[in-house]
Input
Amino acid sequence: MKVAVLDLKAEYAELREEILPALDRVCRNAAFVLGEEVEAFEKEFADFCGTKHCVGLSSGTAALHLGLLALGVQADHEVITTPNTFLATAEAITYCGAVPVFVDIDPATANLNPKLIERAITPRTRAILPVHVYGRPADMDAIREVAVRHNLRVLEDAAQAHAARYRGRRAGALAHAGVFSFYPTKNLGAYGEGGALTTDDDQVANFARAARSHGQTARYEHEFVGYNYRMQGFQAAVLRVKLRRLYAWTARRQEIAREYRRLLAGARLEIPADDPRDECVYHQFVIYVSNRNAVVTQLATREIETVVHYPRPVHLQPAYSSLGLPPGTFPLAERACERALSLPLHPGLTPEQIQYVAKAVREIVGEK
Ligand SMILES: Cc1ncc(COP(=O)(O)O)c(C=O)c1O
Output
């Protein structure tokens, strides 16, 4: 039985009757960049997250960049973040001329460990950038507490966490501002690149609205040198169709995760823990195994696709070799990257596929 990590073709087949008229509306209005669809999506997504503002942008990376600038991150500042993330989290810090300062993860959750933040703070520290990795909320109360004590700003990287909840509140509404990616593979994915910044802060939102469009505050009035980071009408139109499904899709992801946990209980592997007060949205279902390469190969021979998130932590990527952080600097993130394996999880998985995957994993890794 073939099991893919994702099936965007099947998803399109389900949505086609709604997507095509939505794209047609964009063409008929010729609102290809920003425009009505983007404004409508911004309003709907802000309501969804429970924030005052949502600013539609061209990617999650653009949203991280503008979010950091809006919070005052400048050249020579430091921003504290996790090494267990996609490179974009650190890149956005570098775009500001600032320096990413990593702290190790809590192995139980794979997220940044708030207990380690304080010792990484220096007079140059301006902000903390936690990532809700795999869709599991970082411990935001503990992070906010440190931020308040040291007068730091907090930006949430919620690129993998659409609809996640922390203590009842949605990702994107848990800090000074939140960042989302709508890359096609995300839980809420566009049909191309897209991103958004969410915030309750008028100044942050106003800055991002101007900065995404060459620093314009009115047509051809350029207050400052900005960027071309605008969201496209087509992407907003697709996202509006999919947003209506997001509750149901998220509930299905959570149900599949519970089923995997049940079927894998007692097998020789570990699974990051969920806090019962929060809601993980399972962008990835990650297991930790000791002999990962062999597991990947054996699953592939049974036509089960897997992905590794992430094979190397950011501080060990060649792109950040200039930071001079050798292997062993963040042992828990490094260990996670050596063992993490993402199993197929998307709302279209059938009960038979879930059982097939779990049974195969169990047979391959053995019992505890
Ligand atoms: C944690 C994280 N941050 C940032 C990004 C960047 O988003 P985008 O690809 O939309 O620029 C991603 C996307 O892969 C991500 O997973």
